[in-house]
Amino acid sequence: MLHSFPRISHQFPLPHIHCGTTLGNGYLGLSAWGAGNMLNLSVGCSSLWDHRGGMMWTEKQNYPAIRAALEAGDRERMEELFRTDTESVPGMPKRPSLIPLGRIAVAFDKELEQVELDLSNGLVRVSFCGGGEALELRLSMSAKGVFAFRSPHIREIRAIPSWDLAPELKEISFAEPDRFDRGFRQPMPADPAYSLFFERRGDGVFCRFSRGDETSGEFPAWSDLERENGTYWRNFWESIPSLRCGNPLVEESYYLGLFRFQSMTAPDGVPAGLQGPWIEDHKLPPWSGDYHFNINVQMCYWPAYRAGLCGNFEPLFRMIRSWLPVLRRNAKFFVGIDDGYMMPHAVDDRCVCMGSFWSGTIDHACSAWMAQMMCEYYDYTGDREFLRTFAFDFMSGVMNVYLAMLEEHDGKLTLPVSVSPEYRGAEMNAWGADPSFQLAAIHRLASDLIRVAGILGEAVNPAWEKVRAMLPKATLIDSRDGRQIALWKGVPLEESHRHHSHLAGICPFATLRPDDPEWSEVLRNSVEHWVRMGMGLWTGWSMPWAAMIHNRLGHVDMAELVIELWHRVFVNKGGGTLHNPGIPGLSSFSVNSELMQMDAGMGMVAAVQDLFAYALDGELYLMSGCPESWKEIRVDSLFCPGGLKADLRRKEKEGTEIRLTATRPVRSVVHLPAVPGGWLCNGVPFSGTVTTVELKSGESVMLNSR
Q1: Which residue, 14, 154, 621, 667, could crosslink 694 as a Cys pair with Cβ 3.0–4.6 Å?
Q2: Does the pLDDT of residue 76 top 90, yes or no?
Q3: Average pLDDT, the chain
Q4: Is 180 helix (H, G, I), strand (E, B) or coil?
Q5: What is the mean pLDDT of residues 675-680?
Q6: What SS3 class is residue 562?
Q7: Cα distances (angstroms) measured from residue 61 to each of 67, 68, 77, 594
Q8: DSSP assignment, residue 167?
Q9: 186 Cβ partners below 8 Å, 6+ apart?
């Protein structure tokens, strides 16, 4: 692959962990930050859970009881239904949380000047004022708890436990750690202890994080670690698509984003939550660093498909498989069926609910969205065994819960009580009939189930066809902007909101086609109203979602601008991807350059990929988001659904060229951008911008502008 990496460097001071330059191996995360002559290497682990607290679904949280309380406006009853047993126990956390680990603090005889990340081999270099040999930092990608650094300018090294930095740990019954000359061992109230140790050797300082009673072990030589890193990242970059478009912010979003994606979701690691493995060392992480399934987990994993990294889904899917008995029990308690699956929106790694946020707990589109991602996994990999042994059963179980909730009135199906993610929070009016978000999720699920049943030779449930025929695709409302999509019956979008959920029929569920005459005016009105509401209550992860919506509506320059805006507003000094804005003036969320989540950065990778290729109803759209200002484009081996790889070229005086290569037998409808003079397919002209490609495995087709 022909890669052109952006230069990732930042000047000290870097005053906070989330301003730091990061390394990760799908399990352990490092952040290098500091000021003066002090470098902090904060260490986090994406499986370091304190599992106490939280809420398991019970019989009392059933759909009829919840519906009755909501329809009666009975706040006291709703609080009773979702009250946890641990909320008032002294020293007991209300919910599970990832736990801050600690840091290695290094003092030097020189002042820090600059930190630089080499994406090609995973090396972090820290240079000093006045010159001198730079510090080098490496993280092992195979020995998951090992990292090392070396510098002739080291004066002092300390291992500092988070118990010393985060007072909250004492408040939730963490005992003082056992301290040693070269590290510490931290007992946990109900989970295995953890340790962080370092050892000074002639070839560097080697550090190890471990669980349980292990406090020692063999370290590799620096040369071995250097060789391992070089091989690992060389193989990684050779396997993924390369991209050049001339916009440095777009290219940085892509390359740094994919480096971080691999760092937090490696196939031999653990599933990535809100912050991946980069957990603060001085406090409990926001939102417990948990798994949010109402967009955040999905966004964290979006880059996998078109980068050809579907193996990175394995830890996530393995975790969800382990939850199936819990998800089955949840569905039984909620709607009284034995063959359903239901996943709340915020959970720990054991699928324990984070707390009493009722509107998230009953948001069944969380399950449907993961079902869609499983189906897309098949579309990109062709893995029928995955469909047969896991995905089809999961998809069917999720639909069974919806079928138990749906009612038929006057020849139409309706979902009488549900939510749109986080709209109106957990207020007693945060619900309604037929939320457009849920309707889009149900239609996506029904269509995917029917298609997958055909692939596997399974019977099609007539109820799925009934859903497609009798359930509205969205709830509509008349307003000053004309007929448009509502949040739910009777409720238009009343304010700027971070979730664009009522537009989920455009993206991600792709149930509404902008080129469908039946929907084009409604979508135009809906988006005009959405734009009028503005970005005032958007967060970082709102931006890539918005860029994808704009791209799919043909707002090409706006999609690019949203990507650029995100860099200016929601990326801090050190490149950390922010939940809140880093500067005032765009969003009314308070300025906070320390509140980091990985979803926005990963979503931006997907938004960039979306400019070059996306699928809608099984049809492939190529280069639809490439602005005219991009005079030269080169993308190699971009993965597309159905088993296609795309090589994309645009040269100012030579036109546009697209080569599609099949990795398995494929038949696909392909939409091309409009070009002067039209298109040739293998040298033969055809009219319009749509063609059908049918290829055997290994075959290619060439599409050229005339």
Answers
A1: 667
A2: yes
A3: 96
A4: strand
A5: 92
A6: helix
A7: 10, 11, 11, 36
A8: T
A9: 102, 161, 162, 163, 174, 177, 178, 193, 194, 195
